[in-house]
Design brief:
Radius of gyration: 29 Å
Shape: rod-shaped
Largest sheet: none
Helix content: 55-70%
Distance between the termini: 87 Å
Strand content: under 5%
Order of helices and strands: HH
Length: 66
């Protein structure tokens, strides 16, 4: 009887551990996709304004190629 009870508890424990690992893994995956993990560095920002203020060269490509 004691051996059977021990197997039941081991089975319940293993299922519980698998559920905890699965939920934790999914949580870490979602947080990594959102960039919210503490060890993720912020991406380097690229300034757009220097490129947006270029003078018009008058080439046909600037008018869409037509």
């Amino acid at each position: 009887m004691r051996l059977r009870r021990s197997r039941i508890w081991i089975g319940i424990l293993m299922v519980t551990m698998l559920v905890v690992i699965a939920v934790g893994s999914f949580g870490i995956y979602v947080a990594s996709e959102a960039g919210q993990l503490p060890w993720q560095a912020d991406p380097t920002r690229i300034a757009v304004t220097p490129f947006a203020n270029l003078p018009d060269t008058g080439t046909p490509e600037a008018d869409g190629g037509a």
